[in-house]
Amino acid sequence: MQPPALQPSVLQPNASERDRYNGLTRAEATLPSSAYWGGESYQRDLDAIWYRSWLLVCREADLAQPLAFRTFRVGTQEIVVLRDETGELRAFHNTCRHRGSQLCQESEGRLKARLITCPYHAWSYSLRGDLVRVPSKSLPEGFDKADHPLYRVALSVWRGFVFVNLQEDANLQEDANSQEGAAGSAQASFDPASGDLGNWPLETLVSGHVLRKVMNCNWKIFWENFNECLHCPGVHKDLSRLVPIYGRGLMSRHDDPEWVRHADNDAPEFSGGLRVGAETWSRDGKTHAPVFAGLTPAERAAGQTYATSLPSMFIVGHVDYVRTVRLVPLGPEQTGLVAEWLFAPGALGDPSADIDNIVAFGTQVLEEDAAICEVNQKGLRSMRHKAGVLMPEEYDLHRFHNWVRERHTALSP
């Protein structure tokens, strides 16, 4: 049955104006509630989305030296990413070709030799993944080491960020699910609606703080919360004061069905941007690190520029720092979050820079988001609640839900 149409706005814009209104024009159903807690739904998310998408692992700077490695786990799959002796980044399943033993047991570190040696039976692999040594006294007839390399994983670097894709030959295949076209690089995974971070020097930034958190909610709950601001006035009171349009429960000017009444009003509660006198996201709204020199006046005025790569990360450019958030599903009702604050190299040694002021505000916002996502999760198991309904301002949730549905459909036989 089709949902009932929403009541029309008091203001009836003409056709061209209506085209610019972002909101949904009728009620839309959410994903079914079991999609957020059911074991089968969780496995389907892994198979259709997480095992077939570009996923953020770390920054290149985290693997700066030859022989440096990190392991990364998503679902049941564990990957090792390393920099070989020539400086090339490579990724493999963290699995020995002999009997499937885990190879690297630590989460990160530096290899002791230019070999990856299985801790079980000492099969050894070059850092290119080739099997080079088998300690057995003899080899079976016809056994060729060249036939048993490590399972390679596609790897892509975007602006200093390292991504992997578990699809075989993902660097070469075309992603039939993607409107962006070829899946051969992580860049193709970014939402076309994302902001342009070209003027931020992402490659040269250094880490000032890392926050790691386990949230007791499904990964989709977090992305839904990210994609709307109806919750902002009640959940993010300080953020709503800093970004006044958030205090109206909106993300941008054209989220308001009556936006045309204020089309010429550049006050931040209508146009977006930070409150008058504020410069960045911090406790006092002031900058506390060197401002990036290459930003345009519009980028400075905006206060925040978002770029999103579903399902694993988003990045936010502010005038004096960049914040990244990485997600990974830990179970049907649990999600891991890693947030990192990145600054110009000179900021961390600058005695006038108050990094804590910046980090404290961003941490507060993330903690508020995590807490309300957990509240959302707790209510979803009602036997009466089969699905929810979206309001006009939740148009990006609808777009996200369709993104999920399309990938599930593509996986169906």
UniProtKB/TrEMBL annotation:
Say yes or no: keyword Oxidoreductase present.
Answer: yes
Give all residue intervals belonging to the Rieske domain. 55-164
Q: Which cofactor does it need?
A: Fe cation
**Keywords from the named record:** 2Fe-2S, Dioxygenase, Iron, Iron-sulfur, Metal-binding, Oxidoreductase
Q: Cross-referenced InterPro entries, in alphabetical order?
A: Rieske_2Fe-2S, Rieske_2Fe-2S_sf, Ring_hydroxy_dOase_asu_C_dom, Rng_hydr_dOase-A
Q: What molecular function terms (GO) are annotated for this protein?
A: dioxygenase activity
The family database entries (PANTHER family) matched by this protein are listed as: CHOLINE MONOOXYGENASE, CHLOROPLASTIC
Q: What is this protein called?
A: Aromatic ring-hydroxylating dioxygenase subunit alpha
